[in-house]
Amino acid sequence: METIIISNLSKSFNKTKVLENINLNISKTYGLLGPNGAGKTTLMRILATLLPFEEGYIHYKGCPWDNTEQIRRFIGYLPQHFSAYKQLKVFEVLDHFAILKGITNRKIRYAAVEEVLDNVNLLEQRNKKVKHLSGGMVRRLGIAQALIGNPEILIVDEPTAGLDIQERVRFRKLLRKVSKGRHIVISSHIVEDLETICDRLSVIKQGKILFEGSRAEMISLVEGMIWEKEVTADELEFIPDESLISTKELEGNYKVRLFSKQPPQKAESVSPTIEDAYLYIMKENQDVEQVKSIV
Fold it and tell me: Which of 60, 70, 130, 169 is the most buried (most CB within 10 A)?
């Protein structure tokens, strides 16, 4: 599959730059990770051709993004706040979206709707009204409408926002299932949404890319820097906030996970995770070259 190339992309609102000099190579299943307000949704809306950009270039298969009519043929999009026609049945909603995507032949359209319903495990709910669906089912309906027309690029913004733990797990499985044979771009502020799905990741903060690479490359940034040790409540007070990753209460004491370039006293070295690397990058707030030089 060809790569989606983003070169020197910038975007401003009211003279405030919300994306600055973004350079990304997107292929297969790609995760955009960052806190709320980092610029993720703006970038996703640009990729979905819903927002223009002032500077830079995006292209796929030699087609530039300002050729919106052609690019939209490649794209399926699930926004962060997907809302459908609550009084309509599931099948009716998808039939409507299929018409909007230009599938005018009724027989072909109905077959396409049935196929995506099966793909997202909503066949049994095909005659339910949207207002009677759970939050997880509504998100699956959102993926279903994005899949109509079999797009080569699927853009999914904050896919598990507002879902409980079980629904989040189900939705991640669904994303893995529909990723075959297409590019999927997923944005999230939840590390677990991306770490088991994505082939490559980028970290964005305040409109700037701090890291881009594979999961292994991201983890390597903190290799040999992650430790766990048991401490008392008094000792916990003296651990600097910038070193502390997490705290787990034990009987009378605490087990802490922390960053340190040097082995802390009585600490055990542990394998780093994507979350460790993400927190480290965010704390340092530097680009990948600077982060690598520190490590």
Answer: 60
Which H or E run includes 290? helix 288-294
Structure-token pair, residue 228: 């766990």
SS3 of 79-143: CCCCCCCCCCEHHHHHHHHHHHCCCCCHHHHHHHHHHHHHHCCCHHHCCCEHHHCCHHHHHHHHH
10-residue stretch averages of pLDDT, the chain, 295 residues long? 93 92 94 92 95 94 92 92 87 94 92 92 93 89 92 91 82 86 92 88 95 94 94 90 90 91 91 94 62 35
Domain boundaries defined on the chain: 4-214, 219-294
Cβ-proximal residues to 287 (8 Å cutoff; 6+ apart), any chain: 208, 209, 210, 211
89, 182, 209, 279 alpha-carbon torsion, rounded to 10°: 70
Within 8 A by CB and 6+ apart from 109, the residues are: 95, 98, 99, 103
Question: Which DSSP helix (H) or strand (E) runs through 292?
Answer: helix 288-294
Contact 26, 3 (CB under 8 A): yes
Query: C-alpha angle with apex 47: 140 to 122, nearest 5 degrees?
Result: 10
